[in-house]
């Protein structure tokens, strides 16, 4: 295991100790990490069964394929210190987080990067980041610590069950080849009443998005994520939020639309989509 420093205070009491060490865990200060390894095996039935029960598979084998078949860790090896959506999308997402994430929450930012778009004025107890590029994650000032892991190779999250109040996945769900297993793991690490917020637009790395996403429409992509939630026993009925600029409300059918998709973006303002569901129940706060 290789330790990678990040520039945030490290609070050992606030962190969960990882189990199977298939990821790179990093924290502030060049101190030796105390890591507990617990290799999963058929005898460890309690751990294996603690993830959400997958009721059905949403994707076909063909729907999981990508044009670029190189390992994701290789594709994302070079850091990209850019935002993949426009300012209006980011503002809408930050406002949504302000509404749905309570101060003092413990948050897992799944498939994150150098920025998490959390409201700057809100203090959370702990924000854990996950991604594929350590340099990007190390620059993210909202993270208390992070780990690097390819979820398309191994969907297991080395986190204790019921250890987070919220899980976020921002403009990245289109790259998951085993979304049912990832959503099941998210359910496991969420506390009862915890929220999972999946947001996306129409931008993507076209060659790294799965076939079911590349070949779909805006409507079908929303329905795809809804089905990801519905495939795992334990999530509440997904809530869909759409904010679509008027000029972009219709599907782009121009002859050159495929070129813009290949470059990873469409012209005009970015449409905003968020799918939200809770573990077991949606809490009511006074």
Layout of strands and helices, then pairs:
Layout: E1 24-26, H1 45-48, E2 53-54, H2 72-75, H3 87-100, E3 106-110, E4 126-131, H4 134-139, E5 145-148, E6 164-170, H5 179-189, E7 190-200, H6 211-214, H7 218-230, E8 232-233, E9 239-243, H8 257-263, E10 272-278
Parallel strand pairs: 3-4, 3-6, 4-5, 6-7
Antiparallel strand pairs: 1-5, 2-8, 7-10, 9-10
How would you characterize the overall build of this protein?
The strands form two sheets. The protein has an eight-stranded mixed beta sheet, with helices on both faces. Strands 2-8 form a two-stranded antiparallel ribbon. It is globular and about 45 Å long. It has a domain at 72-246 and 267-279: Rossmann fold (3-Layer(aba) Sandwich). The model is unreliable at 1-24, 28-49 and 261-267 (pLDDT under 50). It has eight helices and ten strands. Helix content is 22%, strand content 18%. It has 286 residues and is α/β, with parallel strands linked by helices.
The SS-based structural class is: alpha/beta
CATH topology of the domain at 72-246 and 267-279: Rossmann fold
**What is the N-to-C order of secondary-structure elements (H for helix, E for strand)?**
EHEHHEEHEEHEHHEEHE
- Secondary structure: number of strands: 10
CATH superfamily placement of the domain at 72-246 and 267-279: Vaccinia Virus protein VP39
Please indicate the percent range of residues in DSSP E strands (runs of 2 or more). 15-25%
Distance between the termini: 45 Å
Uncertain runs: 1-24, 28-49, 261-267
What's the CATH architecture name of the domain at 72-246 and 267-279? 3-Layer(aba) Sandwich
CATH class of the domain at 72-246 and 267-279: Alpha Beta
Biased composition (Polar residues): 14-23
Organism: Tripterygium wilfordii (Thunder God vine)
Pfam families: Methyltransf_11 (PF08241)
Protein name: Methyltransferase type 11 domain-containing protein
